[in-house]
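Appendix B. One record, verbatim.
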Amino acid sequence: MIVRKYLSFHILLLGLTLAFILVSCKPSVPSKYLSPGEMEDILYDYHLTMAMADNSSDRAVTQRVYLDAVYKKYGITEAEFDSSMVYYTRHIDRLHDIYENLSERLSDEALSLGASASDINIYGAQGTKGDTANIWPGSRAMVLSQQIPYNSSSFSFKADSAFHKGDRLNLEFDAQFLFQSGMRDGIAVIAVKFANDSVASQMLHVSNTQHYVLSVEDRDNLLIKEVRGFFLLGNGSAGDAKSPSMRLLVLQNIRLIRMHVKHDTPEPSKTPFGTADSSSSNQPVHDIPTDKAINRVSEQQGNLQPVH
């Protein structure tokens, strides 16, 4: 009996030791790069200064002054920041975690500066059942790089009983590019499949740091039964794809707003495309499966990879 207890204790001890070794062996960030905590603090100030510089009459000069102040505050050089960003770009899962935290911190900062909770998370408090609700199913922030498969992020879900005939969907997000060189070419797509299996979609190019909105609407009161879409960062030119420089597209404050809209006199739509704040494709997509509609829009961009 004593021997059994002795063996059980040592087996348990051995198991705990192995577990500790496995946890300890988890790859860490090399010491020559900034730690995740340091990167989060620096990027927090980085995005605040970029937002302030956007409101300046001389944006480029103001950005330079503000960035130099950020580097000085943390006692680093621009080269050290850039090399660390390249490292995190190659380990995009770590960078995604950083931006998850940043999204919350930036929201808290806005609240502390006087913004109301409804300004920060408008429609969110109403849940997903109200007449106007945020039904976005994923993370409020994401980072895309030009490395496959981290160059795209897709979403897809079935409509529930809270959807009504005539609903309008607005996909909204804030985009910011962190590019050392190369062409800025992002794509955002949203597509809906109706009860009769027809499809409506909206696509726009993302090329500037600004707020974007894509809208698609059930104008014929057919009832939406499925919602799909994706975000994608293009490869740019052939030279861009081979370059080791940092090229990231940061998407924040992502929301998908569903609005119940009553159409007094339904009229057949000449095109299934809604309106957007940016340029969109004007080629209608009728009566084809949603996944093909998404891939068709993607393939129109030439060197961009369709999402399956």
